[in-house]
Amino acid sequence: MTKITISLIKADVGGYPGHSSVHPALIETAESKLENAKKSGALIDFKVMACGDDLELLMSHINGCDCGDIHALAWSTFEAATEKAKELKLYGAGQDLLADAFSGNIRGMGPGVAEMEITERKSEPIVAFMMDKTEPGAFNLPIFRMFADPFNTAGLIIDPACHGGFTFEVWDIMEHRKVMMNCPEEMYDLLALIGAKSRYVIKRVFSKPGCSISDKEPVATISTEKLYQTAGTYVGKDDPAGLVRCQSGLPALGEVLEPFALGHLVSGWMRGSHNGPLMPCSFDTAHPTRFDGPPRVIAAGFQMAKGKFVGPVDLFKDPAFDRARQRCLEITDYLRAHGPFEPHRLPMEDMEYTTLPHVMKTLANRFEKAE
Ligand code: 13P
Ligand code: 13P
Ligand code: MG
Ligand code: MG
């Protein structure tokens, strides 16, 4: 059976206004580029979406992960959208396109990439998560809870196909190395790493041997690109995206969404330099404006049918997430009252931009030895 590759590739190519949303003209530009690719047979299907100021390209094809042609298509689509953004003088036009020209693989060039090659099941429910004003480590807590926490996922206890647990691929994004860890056996070690979410990030989750899904295929994948490492300086936050398969030996759709009812604290709000609650919201409210936030997550639900995306359903539109949103707003008031103080503001070493070197230079001659 032909495998299907699902590629979710995203970039901020200009905000409207500021960093709050994507202008409809950018979405139209991307749709027309991808429609041409679909007509030519390069893509089976696609959806163009947006979360905050991030333009999200969801594509299906048969070329596998890291396919040069698909990455080139995404790059040229972002370039076309950048042209449009420049014409409209949108904010930070081309912000995430860090290279002058495409060089074979879009990873490391600015955009975020979440891809997986799958054997489409008899029924293949899938969720595309897209976040704004945060970083890849924002996925650690919810992905852990979906695939390893029995208080979140009842299936880990009561579904024999889930009962063996899952394998997590964790990347150390500072040292560029990775490790595979099994749950539940190594749960405490896994948590020791992924609790440090600015450094250790879950990249993929796999089924274990014996599960109904091939253990060679990922069941979840997350973009882990860190922009500042690519650019060497602050250029905007690495707003991440991820894909999660559901049901039949995997967490049910509702178990996949449940972790987002917490509104957990993530970093990346205002100038990439503040902590805030991750607010689950509907597509049409994913426009962060209060202090450029609070950070957002949207969830687009699909059934795959021979590579076609049947959907999306706007999953966080459910009023059952209203209380989570309400709590995020209360946390927002509380954190905002801290102004420039940690832990609302990130610690110095995690800040995306800082005036500290400048302040220290001005004060250099005035510092005296303390007793
Ligand atoms: P169904 O019995 O409707 O398939 O639901 C199973 C399930 O996973 C619900 O959480
Ligand atoms: P983005 O990373 O979404 O572009 O936001 C940057 C920022 O500094 C918002 O305050
Ligand atoms: Mg932006
Ligand atoms: Mg953004």
Explain what this protein looks like in three dimensions.
The chain is an alpha+beta fold and 371 residues long. The chain is built from 10 helices and 15 strands. The chain has helices spanning 24-39, 68-87, 140-148, 155-158, 187-194, 227-231, 253-257, 269-272, 322-336, 356-363, and strands at 4-11, 45-51, 54-61, 112-118, 124-132, 166-172, 177-183, 200-207, 218-222, 241-245, 265-268, 274-277, 279-280, 296-305, 308-314. The strands form 3 sheets. Strands 5, 6, 7, 8, 9, 10, 13, 14 and 15 form a 9-stranded mixed sheet that branches. A 4-stranded antiparallel sheet has the order 2-3-1-4, with helices on one face. Strands 11-12 form a two-stranded antiparallel sheet. Helix 1 (24-39) packs antiparallel against helix 2 (68-87). The mean pLDDT is 93. It binds 1,3-dihydroxyacetonephosphate (2 copies) and magnesium ion (2 copies).
Instruction: Please count the helical segments.
Output: 10
| Computed Rg | 20 Å
Report the sheet with the most strands, covering strand number, pairing sense and barrel closure. 9 strands, mixed
Percent helix: 25-40%
| Uncertain spans | none
> How are helices and strands ordered from N to C?
EHEEHEEHHEEHEEHEHEHEEEEHH
Q: Kindly report the average pLDDT value.
A: 93
Which secondary-structure class do the elements indicate? alpha+beta
Percentage beta strand:
25-35%
Tell me the total number of β-strands.
Answer: 15
Cα end-to-end separation: 74 Å
What characteristic shape results from the CA principal axes?
A: globular
Question: Which oligomeric state applies?
Answer: single chain
Question: What ligand molecules are bound, each kind once?
Answer: 1,3-dihydroxyacetonephosphate, magnesium ion
